[in-house]
Design a protein that fits this description.
The protein has no helices and nine strands. With 134 residues, the protein is an all-beta fold. A hairpin with a 4-residue loop joins strand 1 and strand 2. The chain is globular, with a radius of gyration of 17 Å. The N and C termini lie far apart (50 Å).
Length: 134
């Protein structure tokens, strides 16, 4: 008799991206925090998301190439989400093109508007890969 194979639940998105406006108290400067985390919880290790950022403030473009996951350097096991954080200093209150790229191939374009009151997603990608939250 064969046992039934257990498959993970299918999720609507692979990653959540929370964008927030914060202040660095040491440098007295504001920054935008791009906080990536996986939707899936890992049971044995807290993996790290490998992301290659490419920022062009003159063209108002913010690009993140999501390359995959890497295992932690510490041998102690712990569970949790895989994550990555990026702090963007020297931003201005304007609209940015946010490009999320999956392994240098598929592009997911978003537009975000940064104001004194907060951050708003003005255009979402039609493809579901990353859920952008503000």
């Amino acid at each position: 008799m064969r046992t039934k194979q257990v498959r993970p639940e299918k999720t609507e998105y692979e990653f959540d991206l929370s964008i927030s406006r914060n202040k660095d108290e040491m440098n007295k400067k504001e920054y935008l925090l791009f906080d990536f985390k996986t939707v899936k919880v890992f049971e044995n290790f807290k993996y790290r998301i490998n992301i290659e950022p490419k920022i062009n403030l003159a063209k108002k473009e913010i690009e993140f190439n999501i390359e995959g996951l890497s295992a932690p350097l510490i041998s102690l096991s712990s569970n949790g989400y895989a994550g990555y954080q990026y702090k963007l200093y020297d931003f201005t209150n304007t609209e940015y093109l946010l490009k999320l790229i999956k392994q240098r191939k598929v592009k997911y374009p978003f537009s975000i508007k940064v104001t004194n009151k907060g951050i708003k997603v003005t255009k979402r990608s039609s493809k579901k890969f990353v859920n952008v939250l503000t």
